[in-house]
Amino acid sequence: MVKIDGTSFKDEYGRRLILRGINLDSKVPYQPDGATHIREGFFDHRTVSFVGRPFPLEQADRHFSRLKRWGLTFFRFLVPWEAIEHGGPGQYDEEYLDYLYKIVSKAGEYGMLLYIDTRQDVWSRFTGGCGAPGWTFDTTGLDITKFKESGAAITHQEYGADYVPQIWATNGFKLAAATMFTLFFGGNDFAPATKFEGQPVQEYLQGRLLNAYKKVAERLKGLPAVLGYDTMNEPFRGYIACRDLNSTGWYHYKKGECPTAFQGMLLGSGIAQEVEVWQSFLPKLLGKKLLNTGGVKAWKEGADCVWKANGVWDFDKAGKPVLLQPDYFAVRNGKKVNFTNDYQRLYFDRFAEAIHSVDAGAMIFITPPNVDYNPPPMGGDNARHIVYKPHWYDDVHWVTKAYHFFPNALVGNDKLTGKPVMGLPGTVQASFIDQMRRIKELGNVLCGGVPTIIGEIGICYDMNKKEAYRTGDFSAHVKEWDRLFKALDANLLGYTLWTYDAFNDNKYGDHWNLEDFSIYGLDQQRNPGNIDSGGRALQAVVRPYPRAVAGELTSFSFDIKRRVFEFEFRHDPAIDKPSEIFIPDFQYPQGYDVKLSDGSSVRDAANQLLIYTHGRGRDAHTISVTPRR
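Request: output the structure for the sequence above.
Response:
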């Protein structure tokens, strides 16, 4: 049993738990294959199946055994809304729910823990990401087959060989996704004229999503592996809080074609626009490009732009489009809009209440937008169940797909301030540690103090133009991973890494928008009989760490070059159970030696654990593990 105690996770014995694991990737349908490089059948969204994601049930033993061997026993299990309700409103995929129950039960047999991720990226597959079913666009009159020509979204499926890696994130600022997010979170305020089946569109969309995940909670209730539910992956705010609809200043990431919000609305109405074109690394305006010269509308026949219908813009007497309220989404009733506190918080509370109506003890993992790490305070009884779960990536690495270490060059980015990090490698490491510290402090004050885990953190395996796939040399990946893990370890943080994709290959990576983050790849599996085969940069990923600590954890670290692990804690006299430390065979194939400050230890070889019983003559205890020569 795992419970929340202040800022910590604890077991039934009162020991502090460090939960470390990985995301199980399930973004696209299994049947037919929903890999984003495949265009055929893309728009046939009602007949898909996610049964088989993250991997077929008959392969589960092999994958769970591998992840357990690597010490990754805490999963973020991706469940897109589309997987549950793709057939239409209220049409739940019972076969998928049965599959989900079976595979989560299997994880429990291996002693794994997990939480369910309400998965979306820039709303849906049809706006360049994943998540919401295709029928959700019917609530607005948007036509998913017209998004490319009208500039409403960029999808890998539609652009094919012309698709640019990492451009998917800009979809959050384009018409289709921005409209859906705005309606989902703030439709009552910003689109009061827009209703669907007699309901305000915000109430309809939120209600359908909440009912879908209540179905999941009903099916999984009582399974010991399930700790709780993630509110929504990396929510976008849509147009909410955009101060000037005539500016691209509201983008936090610019790449390629970047229309202003108003230009996006006009493009969607079939009116050609000359838009800015940006490069993303060291952001620079490259020029402008005329879009939608064919006058294609993003709206279905007979439907009109919802923002025109709600008074954001209109045509003047001469037929010229006019923006009526540039700050329409930034001010309500004379008050400046704050997305996090005014809109996201209300959704978080509704989500928690929906889940708790089925499973009263479920933890609620809250994910803030990547542009605002400050989490909103939760109301009432919900606060007792909250886990703060931000994401963190090395943005410079993500954009450039390289390991950066050059002196006096841009080698990092401060995610909380937006300021660049320049200097020697040690400067970057210190910045990463400090950023993690400040993120953790936000969890320490949320609702009086809640646990913090990093829900996503990972590296691009296709860095340096996929050089490692040609040479077999993953040393740059090990270096990039290691400085991330050092920052996590220094702050005693748990995590779910991004990601484990059972279908990853060198050509298409994770089979989603040309991303390649999986710590496992089929093309690296040279010896299927070896369970480690297929693992990538495992020298950094597979690390010792304290799993259960009989007191206050003060520090631990792992030196991957010397393979030395050091651990220190202060014991709690009320706890009479020993501490457990994961010591992976992968790092110590010839065994290891242990140096204790006091007490005694035994080894649980089957579970790769060192069981340490502290002495009673001192408060602080240290353990050092070194490889046997």
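The chain is about 25% helix and 20% strand.
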